[in-house]
Amino acid sequence: MSSSLALTLLSCVGLFGPAVRAPDEIVRADLAFGAGRYTEASAAYREALNNAPDAPLLHHRLSLAALLGGEAATSERHALVHARLDPGSQTAELVALAAHLEAGASRSGTSPADAERALKDGRLRTAVDLCVAAAPAARSDADRGRIALTLGRALLKLGRADEAVAALESAVGLGTDGGPARVDLLITLGDALARSGHAAQARLLWRWGRAVALMSDAHHPAAIRAAARLKTNE
């Protein structure tokens, strides 16, 4: 973390809050946290939350792991959930404040490349947060197109197909030429439409993407990918 104030606030609360006996399914997360593997710990806490979505302690631990792992927006979100589930919790309020300050300190330097790296690393929620943070500062249609494409891809991988369609549609015409970015956009939009139940529109986008890819290379990987989509969804 870069914010000394955030670290100071964290020092005012216990590492995990009140001492509790950890359920077996989060022992792995706790061990990763204790070893400083915060990204691994965050992923494990998210997995545990699938079985106990209203457990304040899990949201608390995830908020700490995310904050120390550099995912301030995720940390703030789960700290606020912790505060809602455990009204009056000073710990939740302090962590939320620390995360908010950390997010504010880093937001001004967020770029499309930051979001793309998060997506490539599989940090999907972080990629979404970074896209949202980077959008207001985008200086060109090319950057806005990159952000919208990354946002759409991350949302699609998170299973939020309708939101992905909206993001990807906004990217059409924003600084995408006939190259890889354009092809990726068209095929990914087709994927999102298919997931949203719009099969006919999806096939149209896949055909379009394949045609654009074939203009540059008859053996373009994207053309092969689009052809596979069309064959699978005949």
Explain what the structure shows.
- This protein has 3 domains: 4-106, Serine Threonine Protein Phosphatase 5, Tetratricopeptide repeat (Alpha Horseshoe); 108-164, no CATH class; 177-234.
- The protein has 234 residues and is mainly α.
- It has helices spanning 4-11, 27-34, 38-51, 56-68, 72-85, 90-107, 112-120, 124-134, 141-157, 161-171, 180-195, 199-216, 221-232.
- The model is unreliable at 1-21 (pLDDT under 50).
Please give a handful of descriptors for the protein shown.
234 residues; mainly alpha; Serine Threonine Protein Phosphatase 5, Tetratricopeptide repeat; 72% helix; elongated; disordered N terminus
Rough outline? elongated
- Based on DSSP secondary structure assignment, what is the total number of beta strands? 0
Radius of gyration: 21 Å
Order of helices and strands: HHHHHHHHHHHHH
The domain count comes to 3
How large a portion of the residues is in β-strands, by DSSP E?
under 5%
CATH H-level name of the largest domain... which superfamily? Tetratricopeptide repeat domain
Structural class: mainly alpha
Q: Uncertain runs with pLDDT below 50, 5 residues or more?
A: 1-21
CATH architecture of the largest domain: Alpha Horseshoe
Average pLDDT figure: 78
The CATH topology of the largest domain turns out to be Serine Threonine Protein Phosphatase 5, Tetratricopeptide repeat
Number of helices: 13
Q: Which bin fits the share of residues in helices?
A: over 70%
Give a short account of the largest sheet. Answer: none
Question: CATH class of the largest domain, anyone?
Answer: Mainly Alpha
